[in-house]
Amino acid sequence: MKTFAKFISTAAMALALAGAAQAADLTVYSAGPGGLIEKLAEGFKAATGKEVAVFQATTGKVMARLEAEQASPVADIVISASWSTATDFDKDGMLLEYTSPNAEKVPDFLKSNTYVAQGISALAIAVNTKSGVPEPKDWSDLAKPEYKDLVTMPDPASSGSAYELVAALTADQNIGWALFEQLQENGMIVPGANAAALNPVLQGARAAVFGAVDYQSFEQIEKGETLKVIFPTSGTVIAPRPMMILKSSQHADTAKAFIDYVLSDEGQAAVAAAWLMPARSDVGAERPLMSDLKLLSVDPATDREAVLKKFAEIFASN
Amino acid sequence: MTTLAKGKINDRQNGGGIAALVVPVLLLLVAFPLLFIVLQAIFPDIGKGSLAEPFSLVGKTLSDERLITWTLNTLKLGTGVVLGAAFVGVPLGLLRGLFRMPGGALWDVIFTVPFAIPPYIAALGWIFSLQRRGYLEQLLGFNLGQFLFSYWGVVFVMTLNVFPVVYFAVSRSVASISGRYLEAARVCGASPRVGLTRILLPLTLPAIAASLLLVFAMSIEEFGTPAVLAARSGFLVLVTGIEQRLTDYPIDMPGASILSIILVLLAFAAFMGQNWLVNRRDSGTASGKPTRQEQMELGPYAPLAVGFFVLVALVGTILPIAGVLLTASTRTISGGLSLSNLSLDHFRMLGDNTAGALEALITSFTLGISAAVITGLIGVLTALVTVRQKTFLARILDFLSLIPNTIPGVVIAVGLILAWTQPWLPVTAYNTPWVLVFAYCGLLLPYPVRYATTAIRQLGTGMEDAARVFGARPITTIRRIVIPLIFPSMLAAMLLVFAVASRELVATILLAPLGTVTIATFIWSQFDQGSVGLGMAMSSVAILITLTVPALAALLTRGGKSRTS
Fold first, then answer.
1. Which single residue of A296, B18, B290, B413 has CA 20 to 30 Å from A264?
2. B234 → closest Cβ in A85, A203, A316
3. Are residues A102 and A44 part of one domain?
């Protein structure tokens, strides 16, 4: 038994070294980009002295964790990359009412009593400029023979913004599902979520991403990758990223202060530095802003499951 | 517990006492989270602590027409990888165990490498190497993208990842078979072929079967490789379906739980088959004398055997590592392989502790060592009960200890979260590093248990009987006789646990306490944010350190042995 006790105590010591989770004043579950939420947490600590614990993952994994923790919730604030999470949570009465004084300059369609946008991303075409293809101007260009077997697209089942793009384009009389059928015939692949769609284009295995998340592509360009972001002429969709305080939060006041901080000048500058469009219309950024883009709208009554099923049917044969 | 212990005392040793010690631990690590997965499958609202609307979602999930395709694909993938791993691992293991291979133990180190490369990294490495305009095309002008993104590509990458399990099990098992049997056969005039088919293969069959079962279980629960490679060709398996239900909003946890139960049943069938195969014979082959079998000479076949080893090492070890290293040391991916694009920037960023890289390394290795020590200990104790006793309790233990290998990491993680967030618990492991240790132990217990079972099964009972006659207490017998004899096997198993635990991804992402970054979550979040180079640099460092641990362990044990003798 002595051996057993010794093993256990060794393991316990080892774990003590690994360091238990620090007692935090606030817990934030956030979809990427990871650098942004860490920067915001540091900035908030510098401003208020409050420690923020962060869980950063894809929106899907954040939701899975929230759902699993229902019995004893840990998160105070959730930042998602999909607007529908906020509307759904709101419908289920899970959110705390709060309107930040800093949200005054946030456009009305990007806020409600219970949630407000942190920043906004848009979808675009990302092209590898070394791949030798003509520069596309619009979505439909990617169905042309020049792009045969050279296009990727994020899976709308795992990327909320890609779903919005499919829903918006297929609802358009002039585009419809025919575009996606042509893309499929032209050899477009759907390899996974956003990063999975971008990687083949970086190396040149493919030439362009249909529906690349713009801030991720801008980041790559900043790192020196030979990419170009093109906003198609027929318009695109945006993906506002809602921030919300959960009703179950034990730290409501700190949570409100955090929302205020993210919407402050400093917070919004950090959002812009991560290549997102700031939620506040009076904060600028070194990238095209909403006013520069032609926006397509998505009918909220669209049957999501039906759209995803039809999409999956078209691309199942690849 | 005392009645339990009393009831199970058998005449060989006090196995009941051990069972009483191990059963609660296994219940906590395995049965507790599993119970909540089953409860979740039945009661959709268990997460809220409610038992409302039982079975309301079972029919809907089971009537999904894709289910049959996913199940068949899962079986197809498992079978393909088992055949592949047997084709590569068994001959390699037999050659290494039976013959004096030039290079000797060096091959063991080389074949540890594929196992030290996390499967999702290996898959990404292969993609960057083989796809259109990948490294292969940049260097040699052609690509193998078509092959890679298909069923065969998945089988190829996964076989290269898991064949070491078979190789090590077979070579260890052959080496521990007393050479006297083969010698006796030779003396009696048996040809080498008869020695192989009538003595060697039957005696190593338990080890081969056990390792192939592990391979099967590992392949049907592997997520990263099929998701990255096969999804493109429409080859979807059960695990991809589970992951989809867990990560595509809205989350369908009951559906995921039901699919997991189907996976468990598949693996259970394989387990029964293996059990039947192994239990037909009980072979006590090690006499206890630490005489290592005299290894045979390869003679004129040496170049052929060495060529085979070199080929496997090249494809299984050197190419994936090269893919990872190249990606880590090119500044941009679009820049390709050119001198001006080579840089150590990504490694320098690691050294500067970008994004907490150093803490991630320390955390992962601490967790890996803890999991290895705990599972090693539980493994030996469990195997002692299951091999030496034929009781019902022993079979339950055996099954409990194997079952985790059939459950995807993501499901164990959800089970642990569901179980440990129940509001009525007085203390909880959730949100502490312990929950990660529990997850790793729960997931990886099968390795030490299988290895220990194989080793103890080959151990005659004579030595233990002798110890008992001389009045040694059971614990002394275990400590002085059993553990030293099976130590090589156990060390191998614990190194496997360490290698896998220190890089486990899926469960870690869901369970990691807030603020805890491990190697895997670091790499994953770098990939997710498009910093593939930094992610690959971390992978390189992690692989390197994972590899130095076996070397250190070998040095330490050698030192230990010379002290005791």
1. A296
2. A316
3. yes
